[in-house]
């Protein structure tokens, strides 16, 4: 049987990390994390750009026709919010085959639109001669141009589709992930591949004539050139980069890398796609991750699945084979959480006691609306409310906030009050400084034998120790940037506290 302190710890952990699930005031809808919308509206065949398509057998890089390229746009029906993040999904197919109606792309669009996003799945230019390194490079470059055109189109038409133009993301599978990665790392004029310029070569098939391939132009071609074509975050499924040297310290776009370690189509490490030596070597998710780590980036996440291959969530070339497997749900959850983290506000508050009356002070960032649960059945929507408790006791106070796109966060804190105020006299008040923190934090006025538990925002325990009375020092140098909960548990329950600490990037 669990002892009393263990039960108290379990109870407090539940209050802290499940407060969002139990906080039931009507104003909360948890947009972007929960599926709130039953019906989806799809605008099909929306032309987002015109571009020169390769004709014929793709051996002749000079034989092109100007063609419309289209997207399908998914929106939650009966949603009156005029500012919503958008996600562009880009199919796989080795730059030879595929279309915007792949099963996985449509499923992504539908799932994320039900959470409140505007989503789109796009066609892009296909075609390459597989025995030519230059042709494969040019195929990826054309895809990069088309992906950026899709971003610019949504920014330019944001008001028509209820999109926040400052929050347009991109996700891709296989070839689509190549487009995503090149879009954020091949973005300097000096990084344009030489093969994407004008060059001459001998036709590999009859009549073996000399062909001059035209310059493909800059990264941004076509229309809406007054808009920024860089996506604001990318979600890369089994993709690769031309070379990790393209990743510079200034390249800080948030990135999520997903890959199976046994992928024999797009190498997890360094190698030729399909193991075909005519394809130049590419740099998969593992060396990309290593490069980002080496540059000190804390703006990327990875999910590398040991022993799994290409498209490991249950598709073959983007279509269910025959149905999604157990990895599909996890992938959707990771995509949902990653994109939500890009635009969520940060909730927090402090308080000042005066007898049974407590003045609460909002310490949130990016909040536009507030909802307080004072833990005694009362609530408020003021940003800095005062509340008088009917009697002494222990209360869990929760603040729920939303920003201008109804992205949300919540923060809970346990307080103990009496008719003389907070039960912790100021001289003996436990305090944590500095906050925000860099490499170190200090906790003052700890009772002897207190237990200190530091939780990450994902629930991971970073530290769990017992202390002596006085001050404790913790080194957070190697903790990821973000919010942490510091839980102090003592045999004197009046000393039990929870503090929220922000670790910022050094």
Describe the protein's architecture and organization.
This protein is an alpha+beta fold. It folds into three domains: 1-32 and 345-423, Immunoglobulins (Immunoglobulin-like, Sandwich), CATH 2.60.40; 41-343, Rossmann fold (3-Layer(aba) Sandwich); 429-506, Immunoglobulin-like, CATH 2.60.40. Helix content is 19%, strand content 34%. It contains eight helices and 30 strands. It has an eight-stranded mixed sheet with strand order 1-2-4-3-5-8-10-13, with helices on both faces. A five-stranded antiparallel sheet has the order 19-18-21-22-23, with no helix packed on it. Helix 4 packs across helix 6. 38% of the residues are buried.
The overall number of domains is 3
C-alpha termini separation = 45 Å
Secondary-structure arrangement, i.e. CATH architecture of the largest domain: 3-Layer(aba) Sandwich
The CATH class label of the largest domain is Alpha Beta
- Can you identify the CATH superfamily of the largest domain? Alpha/Beta hydrolase fold, catalytic domain
Approximately how much helix is present in the residues? 10-25%
CATH topology of the largest domain: Rossmann fold
Label the structural class: alpha+beta
Radius of gyration: 27 Å
Number of DSSP strands? Answer: 30
Shape: elongated
**What's the average pLDDT?**
88
Quaternary state of this entry equals single chain
Q: How would you sum up the major sheet?
A: 8 strands, mixed
